[in-house]
């Protein structure tokens, strides 16, 4: 089982925000003290103005403390979410395959289709991150219907590392359009934590945790 080390992007951003707020608080305090030291003794600052400035300083202090506590809560939630995702490693899942990434070392897992109707034909169009078509795959009726695609480009090459989308154009027995969604049905190999968020490794494919639609215990077919 492999779980890649997380990149503390959120923690770094929160620390930077807290440091900036702390700096603002210190600057405010220095300016306030300098104002008191350099005020005109013949025309001192009124008590009302001093109370207003002290109230403003108190508000800054409270905001600093609030930001600190929010950063702690965010870190705790991230840790809990990461621990939960780790439990997916080795589990059988189905995941939305309409948008995925590949590592460039091999084809993605086989793709099945899910639909409320009976899929009798059609095709799927695979595009890269720039929207360029890289392959087309005919639909093989099921159950379940699947894509007759070896995970390669139209030229027979392994998909380069990057992001891809799948557009399914399915039809029923009468040739009428039918809504269908592409699905991966495989095992989670690893969980990856990146600055852009978490990703699940499904063989050579990568999907977000939110793409998972079902999770099964080990040894249970989906």
Could you explain how this protein is built, in words?
The protein is an alpha+beta fold. It contains 2 helices and 14 strands. It has helices at residues 9-37, 47-86; strands at residues 2-3, 92-96, 99-102, 111-114, 121-128, 133-140, 146-147, 162-171, 177-178, 181-187, 190-194, 197-202, 205-207, 212-216. Strands 1, 3, 5, 6, 7, 8, 9, 11, 12 and 13 form a 10-stranded mixed β-sheet that branches. The protein has a 4-stranded antiparallel β-sheet with strand order 4-10-2-14, with no helix packed on it. Helix 1 packs antiparallel against helix 2 (47-86). The longest helix is centred in the first third of the chain and has 40 residues, at 47-86. Mean pLDDT is 79; it is low at 5-16.
List keywords for this structure.
2 helices, alpha+beta, elongated, ten-stranded mixed beta sheet, 222 residues, four-stranded antiparallel beta sheet
In terms of topology, how is this protein built?
Layout: E1 2-3, H1 9-37, H2 47-86, E2 92-96, E3 99-102, E4 111-114, E5 121-128, E6 133-140, E7 146-147, E8 162-171, E9 177-178, E10 181-187, E11 190-194, E12 197-202, E13 205-207, E14 212-216
Helix pairs in contact: 1-2
């Amino acid at each position: 089982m492999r779980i890649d080390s997380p990149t503390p992007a959120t923690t770094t951003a929160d620390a930077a925000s807290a440091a900036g707020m702390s700096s603002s608080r210190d600057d405010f305090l220095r300016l306030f003290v300098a104002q008191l030291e350099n005020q005109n003794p013949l025309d001192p600052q009124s008590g009302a103005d001093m109370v207003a400035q002290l109230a403003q300083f108190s508000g800054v202090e409270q905001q600093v403390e609030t930001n600190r506590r929010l950063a702690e809560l965010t870190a705790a939630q991230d840790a809990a979410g990461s621990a939960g995702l780790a439990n997916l490693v080795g589990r059988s899942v189905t995941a939305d395959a309409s948008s995925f990434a590949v590592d460039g070392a091999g084809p993605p897992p086989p793709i099945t289709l899910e639909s409320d109707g009976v899929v009798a034909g059609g095709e799927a169009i695979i595009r890269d991150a720039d929207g360029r078509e890289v392959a087309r795959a005919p639909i093989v009726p099921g159950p379940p219907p699947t894509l007759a695609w070896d995970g390669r480009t139209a030229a027979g090459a392994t998909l380069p590392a990057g992001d891809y989308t799948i557009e399914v154009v399915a039809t029923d027995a009468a040739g009428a359009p039918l809504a269908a969604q592409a699905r991966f049905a495989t095992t989670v190999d690893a969980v990856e934590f990146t600055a852009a968020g978490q990703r699940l490794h499904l063989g050579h494919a990568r999907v977000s945790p939110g793409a998972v639609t079902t999770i099964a215990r080990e040894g249970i077919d989906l």
